[in-house]
Amino acid sequence: MQPPRIARALAARIAAATAVALAACGPPPAPAPPAPPAPAPPPAHSATGAAAPASAFELVETVPVETTLDHPELRDAADVWPEMIAAARASIDLGEFYASNQQGSRLERVVQALEAALTRGVRVRFLAEHGFVKTYPDTLERLARAGAQVRHLDLRSTTGGILHAKYFIVDDREAFFGSQNFDYRSLEHVYELGARVRDAAVVGGLAAIFAADWARAGGEPAPEPRIPATGRVTGGAAHGAITLVASPRDLLPAGVGWDLPRIVELLDAATATITVEALTYRADADGAPWDELEAPLVRAAARGVRVELLLADWSKRPRTIAGLQKLARIRNIAVRLTTIPAWSGGFVPFARVTHAKALVVDGKRGWLGTSNWEKDYFYRSRNVGVLVDDPAIAGELARFFATLWDSSYAVPVDPDATYTPPRIE
Fold it and tell me: Which domains does the chain have, with CATH numbers?
């Protein structure tokens, strides 16, 4: 039995209460020709025309073109990224799964902004996952020619995982992290959610992760800074704590907590509602059951918590759909799959998909990160995220979830259906 919808009602209640307040591979793109750097965007302004105060935590989205999923209150990553880079004065450090640009794409502005930063003397370091460098060499080579330092992180011999995180740090004073890869598709053809953050503890923790991975990629001794990982959001209507978390467990700098047990704590503390969105979800790994995330979801449902799980239609593949059909049979658990229609300009590989990764519990707390809900993302691969203990931010996450959950793009999983996987590449 499918439980009644909770997401939109939950978001509405939160809004009233706080009224005051790809995956990642495809054919290598053609090299983009050099072009003059785009001018820096003007500062954000309020309705009165005055410059808006900088928020310590700003959700930033990407909405696939030709869809109705836009949130007018959220800015687009294609605008926020060049703005952040244009403001850099000393350093930009990027930790990315891979880099894939295309001529005329929205990512071209970002690449040009990095080139302009290098021209004015900003140090740019780009750390990319080793396994995709041969697949996507062009943008990394272009940045290296412009003066960027580029390294490749290979975790195969240590954890057996990959650099799956997507983040960058500007001048050690602000950072961006989220589901958006450094990929033109992630700025145009994928449903994504990230955050621009100016909290000193979160930025410092991300900088510590980057420093450790940069040293590891260069065969250098790893620094061991002690970074407090809990911050206090200031600015706007948010007044709760945000805490940096990351994975894998065995490669965390001192002061940065492991995300998996903290997510489980959130799930086990739920009293009314849980909403989860991710690209994929699996309760098995290496040929054996793995229920560290599924067990708390099932426990929550058993005590009457309404659980809603929202995943991309890439999960129609045989190795994933059976587990979701099993979940969909459990009382108080609803599972939906999302399908984004093809672009009018033709098929785009590894795109037209929902890719955001977020959790909201009881409309008050949550998590936003770069991990899909599978074992390897937490135990083997580098990922980052934040825990949110703030009703205002949780409300924004709930509204983002509700838009997709209640849309025509999301369809309930049929426990008895036979599914055909979509074309991905």
Answer: 7-25+54-412 (3.30.870.10)
